[in-house]
Design goal:
heterodimer, A: alpha/beta, D-Maltodextrin-Binding Protein, domain 2, eleven-stranded mixed β-sheet, 12 helices, 16% strand, B: 495 residues, mainly alpha, 78% helix
């Protein structure tokens, strides 16, 4: 048993040594709430362009925000790249972000960055209605999500009420049209007997497979499905509701630099890189996201962002979901 | 020594109290008295009770069939039926949902969690059955009991402590699970905890709810302790133990084999076949074997260390609990169970809190991750070792001491060999569970440290489900070796 202990201890020491070797060194440490496939190629391009190595830790945006808050001033992170503006707003509210460089914040439309410029959106996604053209002719598509409470849509709608992007959209509705109207919309949707799914991609698959006629999702899941199974097998299409409809919400993935970072200059260069033309093209062409640098084209087949598309709100306010969740529960959707 | 281990296991509690206390009583009351909080607690507890019960039935039945009966292919089943433990609950749940999107609510969640957690009962019970002295059962038979009565009166009683602690582990695991409940949309208590991180980015409500979960865990632990009773579980007579003869099931064995077939098909084959189908359907999946290999190596390193360290730490705790009837011994053993009932993200955040403040150089280094595994999975090892410790007659130690052996020598020559099967079973159980661990690995692993379970997670997160297939298969494959070694070990020590 003693020999056993000795073996275990020496293994542990070996492991410590190994993990110390692979440690941070000079490069930047990124906490990424975005998936690795979306982040890694960018980090490699950045290293080629600047010689700065970025080591990334991946996690869910909300949990990484909690981790950064728990680390307080002692965070290992230099940069936080979050999937949604809410997580960035939370870290900013905890006072842990320093200001973004002016060269970055001046590029991005002010509706896609923090009011105090401490975080900046780098790529956008729009809420859309995905539909099955075999079941819904183009002329019947709704101009606004508010039309979906019409009884003619009964049993035909797909939703992901537990999904963060659906909840952000409901929050945006709450902010723009107020509680009574949001509540009656949710009640109307519930009365229409929607099919609920755990995630957006399953709704898109369901619309493509004929299980639902239309669904509320983010725009890029359709394009993801096209690359996953081949474009010729994808019949479903995206439909954009008009103007400032909450159903046309544009949310962003964005970055902020930690105040406690000892690599402020490199972190600023990284942020600049994310808004540079090559990186923005990458987001557009590979992830089918909306580039937020003016002048960079969207992917083929994706209509560009309209000025004034979606409701006019401060995206950081989407952090507070308490009332949204309460409403979703009261109306029986959650 | 046992005290130090218990103190380590209680770190998350200290963290929860610090966080929950921060807002004063009104914040605490606001969170606790939401009508939803109580309702969800009841839902979670009923789910946990149902899954524990079903796991106990399936686990005991499978252990008995594979260890004591002439089940066709029993040695193979002995290994294979333990493997669903290595399947992450979110993978299994997602596989079922992607096949049948309408699966939602209590029954599917119950079924998926039972299929993945009965090995918590199966492994320790099988280990005990390997070592049950057949003389006891034969004595009962010779005194006129039929095989069924002898099984009930003797064998079942022997496995009762192992089965009870196994079900306790299942119960605590279900309380802490987030993967299956979130994907199958069963509104449970853990979901509220996660949602309070996600919805308000405020760690205080989550901590208050964590404390509440903790209070109920302590209640469950106390209740389980009462069921243990005061019996002796070792043979008092002289003589060497023999290998028990196999019970012949006759034609019934072809019916009996349906049970392992069913649980393995549902718990193992369906999830894995579904990931393989994703791989086949995917036109973009890239198979980077070198990378998967490295992730496999990292998983093996972390899981072997986690299993070894945790199993060793469990020895003093389990020995103390088995030998001492003092109240303190009970408290120490019970505290080892606390970490298992808390959602992984809570335990991980508590270690973030402590390491950043008090052991900063070790933060996000492997030793802290191993320590997190210890806190999370200590009860798996403790319960296993405890089962063996109960079967080891303390009188042997006393005899050796009276013959002039030093305590250390007694431990090495007498106690350790008797505990070995329990330690091995505990290590295997921890190993299988470490393989799939996700929240602590993500928050506390070294930067760039990639395991099979983080690979599976990042693939599913990006919607690239095809990429999840190979790491998921490898996860299960990695579970084969320890389970196989474990069953071999069982046979050699008994003969």
């Amino acid at each position: 048993m003693k020999g056993f202990t000795r073996v275990a201890l020496s293994l542990l020491m070996l492991a410590t040594a190994l993990s110390a070797c692979s440690g941070d060194g000079d490069g930047l440490t990124l906490y990424s709430g975005r998936a690795e496939v979306q982040v890694k190629p960018i980090l490699e391009d950045f290293r080629k362009a600047t010689g700065i190595k970025v080591s990334a830790r991946y996690g869910a945006s909300a949990e990484l925000a909690a981790q950064i808050a728990e680390e307080g001033g002692g965070s290992r992170a230099d940069v936080f790249w979050a999937q949604d503006a809410g997580a960035l707003g939370a870290v900013d509210e905890a006072g842990l972000f320093g200001p973004a460089p002016a060269s970055v914040s001046s590029v991005v439309d002010q509706k896609f960055r923090a009011p105090d410029d401490n975080w900046v959106g780098v790529s956008g996604r729009a809420r859309v209605v995905v539909y099955d053209p075999r079941k819904v002719p183009a002329g019947e598509l709704p101009d606004s999500v508010f039309a979906l409470t019409d009884p003619k849509w009964k049993g035909r709608i797909g939703l992901a009420p537990t999904n963060g992007s659906f909840q952000s959209f409901v929050t945006a509705m709450l902010i723009t049209v107020g509680e009574p109207r949001t509540r009656s919309w949710l009640q109307g949707i519930k009365a229409n007997d929607p099919k609920t799914y755990p995630s957006n991609d399953l709704i898109v698959k369901a619309a493509n497979g004929g299980q639902v006629d239309l669904g509320l999702v983010n725009h890029y899941y359709l394009f993801q499905l096209q690359s996953e199974i081949g474009p010729d097998k994808v019949i479903a299409r995206n439909h954009y509701t008009a103007g400032t409809d909450p159903g046309a919400l544009v949310n962003v993935a964005g970055v902020g630099i930690l105040k406690s970072s000892k690599h402020q200059a490199d972190a600023a260069r990284f942020m600049e890189y994310l808004l540079s033309e090559p990186a923005q093209r990458h987001f557009a062409d590979r992830n089918f996201e909306y580039p937020l640098r003016p002048g960079v084209p969207t992917a083929a087949g994706l209509p560009p962002l309209q000025s004034g598309q979606g409701p006019a709100i401060n995206l950081g306010d989407l952090a507070d979901l308490d009332q949204t969740l309460e409403l979703l529960r009261q109306t029986g959707l959650l | 020594m046992a005290g130090a281990v218990a103190a380590a296991a209680l770190l998350p509690v200290a963290y929860l109290l610090v966080r929950a206390g921060g807002g004063g009583w009104s914040a605490i009351a606001d969170t606790l008295f939401l009508d939803r909080t109580g309702r969800l607690l009841v839902r979670s507890l009923s789910l946990a009770a149902a899954v524990s019960l079903a796991s106990a039935v399936i686990g005991i039945a499978l252990a008995w069939l594979t260890v004591r009966c002439d089940l066709p292919g029993r040695r193979m089943w002995r290994v294979v039926v333990a493997l669903p433990l290595a399947v992450p609950s979110y993978v299994a749940a997602f596989a079922f949902v992607s096949n049948v999107p309408t699966l939602t609510g209590f029954l599917p969640t119950f079924a998926v969690l039972t299929l993945l957690s009965y090995p918590y009962v199966f492994l320790p019970v099988a280990a005990v059955l390997e070592r049950v002295d057949p003389a006891l059962e034969e004595a009962a038979r010779s005194l006129g009991d039929g095989p069924a009565t002898a099984f009930r009166r003797v064998t079942l009683r022997q496995v009762r402590p192992a089965a009870a602690t196994g079900s306790l582990l299942v119960c605590l695991y279900v309380l802490s699970d987030f993967g299956a409940v979130s994907i199958l949309r069963f509104d449970s208590f853990t979901r509220v905890i996660y949602q309070s991180y996600q919805s308000s980015f405020d760690r205080r409500p989550a901590a208050i709810l964590g404390c509440l979960l903790l209070a109920f865990t302590l209640g469950i632990l106390a209740a389980e302790a009462r069921t243990r009773g005061r019996g002796r579980y070792y043979a008092a007579g002289r003589g060497a133990q023999r290998r028990p003869s196999l019970i012949s099931l006759g034609r019934l064995r072809w019916v009996a084999v349906a049970l392992p077939v069913a649980v393995v098909v549902l718990g193992l084959a369906v999830p894995l076949a579904t990931t393989l189908r994703w791989l086949a359907e995917s036109v973009q999946a890239s198979v980077d074997l070198g990378r998967i290999g490295r992730a496999g190596g990292a998983t093996a390193l972390a899981s072997v260390l986690g299993a070894g360290v945790t199993a060793l730490a469990a020895i003093p705790v389990a020995l103390l609990a088995a030998r001492s009837r003092s109240r303190l011994a009970g408290v120490i053993e019970r505290s080892a169970f606390v970490g298992h009932a808390l959602p992984g993200v809570v335990v991980a955040l508590s270690l973030v809190f402590f390491t950043v403040r008090f052991m900063n150089p070790l933060y996000q280094r492997l030793p802290v991750l191993i320590f997190a595994y210890l806190v999370l999975f200590l009860p798996l090892a403790v319960s296993s070792v405890y089962g063996s410790a109960l079967q080891a007659p303390p009188v042997l130690d006393d005899v050796a001491r009276s013959l002039g052996k030093r305590p250390r020598e007694v431990f090495r020559t007498i106690t350790a060999p008797l505990l070995a099967p329990g330690v091995a079973a505990g290590a295997a159980l921890v190993f299988l569970t470490c393989l799939k661990e996700l929240p602590a690995t993500l928050l506390l692993g070294p930067t760039g440290f990639e395991t099979l379970s983080t690979r599976v997670w990042s693939a599913t997160q990006a919607g690239a489900f095809g990429d999840a297939a190979l790491p998921a298969l490898l996860l299960v494959a990695a579970g084969v070796l320890p389970t196989w070694l474990l069953t071999r070990r069982g046979r050699t020590t008994v003969s």
